[in-house]
Amino acid sequence: MKRNKLLRPWLALLLATVLAFPVIIPGGVSDAASNQTNSDTADYFGSRFPALAGQEHVFDTLTYYELDYLLRNAGTAADDNYIILFGGSWQPETQAAIGYINEVAQAYGITSIRVFDTKLAGPELEFDIADPNSPYGESFTRRYVDLGARYLTNLNDHTSGKSGTLSAEYTSTAINETEQISPPGGEGTKTVNIAEAPFLFIYNKGNIGSPIVASLEGLDAAGGLEGLQSGSGVNDYIAALQKLFDQISDTGADNVKRARHKVLSNLEYIPGSYNEFKSSPRNPEDPIAPDIFTAEDPPAVIDSVTLDELKHALSQDQAAVVFIGCAWCGDSQGIVKYLNQVANEYGVGKVYNWDFKLDGGVGGLTSYTIPRNPRYAWGETLNGNALHTRTSNVAITHIFTDLVNTYLPNLVSQDTNRNNRITGINPITNAEVSSSRLQAPYIFVYDKRNYDEHNNWAPVLGHVELMGYWRDTHHNENAKSLRLNSLRTLLSRLEWKPEGLQASSISTPDGKGQITGIANKALEYRLKGTSEYIAVASNSNTIDNLERGVYEMRYASKPGFDTSNNNDGTAVARPYPASEPVNLYISGYQEAAPPDESKLRVEPASSLDNNDGKIIGLKAVHEQQPQYALEYRKDGGEFAPVPETALANDVWSGLEAGVYEIRYGAYKAGNSMLNPSLAVSLTVKGHVAAPAGLQGIAPTSSLQNNGKIIGVSTDQEYRPANAASYISVTGNEIIELSPGNYFVRYKATAATLASEATEVTVPQYYPSTGNGGGGGSGSNNTGNGNSNSEPADGITLTNNGARAEISAKADAESGLSIAFLNDKAVAGLLEQAKKVELAGSKATLEIKVEEAERADSIQVTIPRDAFNKLVSGSNADVVVSTSFAAVTFNTVALKSISANEDKGDISLILIQSELTEEGKHVLGDRPVYDVLVYAGETTISSLNGSEVHVSLPYTLQQGEDSHAIIVYHLTDAGELHIVKGQYEPDQGAVTFSTADFSQYIIGYNKIDFEDVKPDAWYASAISYLAARDLANGTGDNRFSPDSSITRGQFLVLLLNAYGIAPEEASANNFADAGNTYYTGYLAAAKRLGIANGFEDNRFAPESSISRQDLFTLLYRALTVLDELPETHAGTAALSDFSDAGTISGYAKDAIAHLVEAEVLAGANGKLLPHETTSRAEAAQVLYNLLSR
């Protein structure tokens, strides 16, 4: 082994020279774009552009293929003018202008402006066909050049080129054996300007040579972005818009100008695009199939949408019908006509149609369409699959996998049943990505509010995935019937639970009740208390002859369908469960309608005592019918009056778990006695203890597939530790399990919440070794069923991996104790890691230096070949531990080290030392640590964006406040920087994560404030933040914990807490950013999408911040940093809080996530979203997150 040479540069201020080591700080900070905030409404543009929120507007999205289709197929008459806007919500210039464009367009009678965003995958990704420096590569810019080279041939005459140019080569294309056709302007390199956003132009294909007849580029007319934001350039910009629209306008007799323009609508585009791509005959002698769409078809309700528009739709609290399919796909052609027909039958106003191929597959436009609709190759460098996101191992794979993993947790398809998956590498993060696969066409109904009986998120309500080309299906009655019937089954449930149903009560002594609103819905019902549901006939509009009572109505269980047989009239049925039921009340003759169930809300008990549940809303219910007494009974007992305090306070507290029925009592009106109403049933759910007496049993063979858990029951459910969804237990044991950790809990029932989960470990199987003797008189030790072989010598098994214990010997040359991990030990660790991973668990391997001749200076070295095999052979984390430090390397860090060009052995050096006298004078007597990693003689200076986790044992000194323990990093410039780290009492150690291998000091920086008492609920939080220079006082050694914190103060606190630096003054900043301490922070927050502000580009930094705004800013910052805490199944939900309905739309997603992640707990069942936030509360929120 060749030992590392330790270089010792002079760092005079703090550290002893013999313990100073060089460090190269990794560079490369990646910018992250934030997600936009969805609106409460389904209006996409209103949610992406605040200036359009709640406004009537003229905009609609334009996918790439829609744009290509329009530019190719537009009419050529003088009035065939199409108005197009190039711009995206991620551009501040487009944000600033779009409201004015809308106002002026409407004044000219314009009804449609189609908006095209060059970020084809949405604003939050860096996939931009107009960006040659995109991390996805330059080749995709061909699609932008195509727009100018093929269609917008005078684009350069209407743009300045200030945003740059893009180029591509174009050649002639043969159209038959003797003829060729050349691109516009001939062969050669075509260079087009990148239009400066917003680029608004009028297109008329008939204007040969100059199809852009008028345009307005950028914001020069307004004096730049600042001119619009400050208002100084608004009038000039409006005048420029008017001048643009004047060129296609006439003045009517009423002296009003009206623009002559055309609209590309779904009525034209959907039939046109599918007929254009219609597949050619299977055989040359076969007849050509008829057009897919004809004049006899109902209006097209299928709407081609961008990926961002689809994500917006899937984020709404309403159902959506989604068609993942495309005009280029023969199988989509085989069903699209029937989808449009059935959608019209069921009153679906919009089917969201998204194409896997972000450009619509234009590079693969088949020759069959060329005689009618030419899009010649002309040297095409991107084929029809170049922008196909559902392709494994391409740069854009993660766009598809992210969509599936984020929005489709209960996806069922042919491929999920075959376990076919899409895999790849995200080029931005270098992380591996993987998701389930689905095929086109895939049609599904989606409602994000739906959960299954195990409380697992199940937003997909049904699907149809039927393969077959139009040329094969149009003349096949079996294939046609299969598609129509499957789609009718799918669209018979367009809601997560039934809505819009009406119950008519009994109005005569011998009358009956009726339920209406059931048409075209696959429903079933039962009288509450009976066991069997009754199916509603598919052709029914009413349910008649109903007796008095409460009826439970739900969507019936139904199948989804998929098949790969083109012509067969059958398909594989995949079951979807019934929906949650809703109650409908048929009141009897001369009795009051029951209490309004929608006004009542229940809060469950909070602990196993089950005695503090609540019913909320009784006051409002009583006030609806004040002449009646409000009565209740519990668990089927006798009815009694609801306590007066519950009516007065609107909250009935201290309730034991159970079923409470609330009704209006009997009432005498004149000479008539009105009977008591039907009772509304409310369940105050209780808690049950976690399962006990469970045991994991190891598999009995090397297949590792028949382990089990015993001691369970059918009222329980389980999940593997690495899975999100629970599975029902079907007997008294759970069988066919791989080794690993599992969680078992009692299921939620009508009366109880799901219990806390009990963790159970299923051990690994190891074959029994026996004697292995070849004769002689040795005893025969057969062992028992669970007798497993021992791991390799020197390797000790741990819960999720193994440990290798090695010793270190002093080296006189370097002054270090050197420990060497040999090939055999590494092989033993790798073997155990593979076994753990085979069981579906994450493996952790420990290299423990047990004895060292010099215990404060240790080098651990691993042979390079063995290290590389360990890294490539498993995804295990590796922990190197000594008596004074432990360093954990994750998979990304290990692979980065393994890839280093220096092929020498891998060494980790850990040294514990102390400060010089000068350093002690500055910081006190604080411990110092060096953490260095080498490949051969090369210092490792980059971990590919990853970090290592360091743990340093530490004993608190007399009187030390643990929250004021901090970690300093000494830069190579000799400066001290505080890193994110803290003292962990349960470990007796200081921990931190770092990407820099350097020197670290455990420091102490206690800051006291006169108005912060040590026993105050916020004292720890303020001490923690102040020690890290994150929170300052308000002067005179005071913190003012009860004072409101302003929006500017919190933003500065938030960005400092997460290491986001302020930026230089910019014209893109908020109009009220000023020139003060928060100016640069506002600029950074705006650019990153953390802060959106108010109308007129204001942030109101001096205003007090509301709780909902605080949590929204926090959520966005954590999203940008990819540090958003995970949500936990079975924890609190937004619906648990009585004032959840008062949360503003822009804040709902943020607050819902933080509630489910247990960051936000509320108080007394309320979130108080509109209350202001105190400085103490803001400090506590950040402390809760930073100290996790």
From TrEMBL:
<protein>
    <recommendedName>
        <fullName>SLH domain-containing protein</fullName>
    </recommendedName>
</protein>
<feature type="compositionally biased region" description="Low complexity">
    <location>
        <begin position="779"/>
        <end position="789"/>
    </location>
</feature>
<dbReference type="Pfam" id="PF00395">
    <property type="entry name" value="SLH"/>
</dbReference>
<dbReference type="InterPro" id="IPR001119">
    <property type="entry name" value="SLH_dom"/>
</dbReference>
<feature type="region of interest" description="Disordered">
    <location>
        <begin position="764"/>
        <end position="797"/>
    </location>
</feature>
<feature type="domain" description="SLH">
    <location>
        <begin position="1005"/>
        <end position="1068"/>
    </location>
</feature>
<dbReference type="InterPro" id="IPR036249">
    <property type="entry name" value="Thioredoxin-like_sf"/>
</dbReference>
<feature type="domain" description="SLH">
    <location>
        <begin position="1134"/>
        <end position="1188"/>
    </location>
</feature>
<feature type="domain" description="SLH">
    <location>
        <begin position="1069"/>
        <end position="1128"/>
    </location>
</feature>
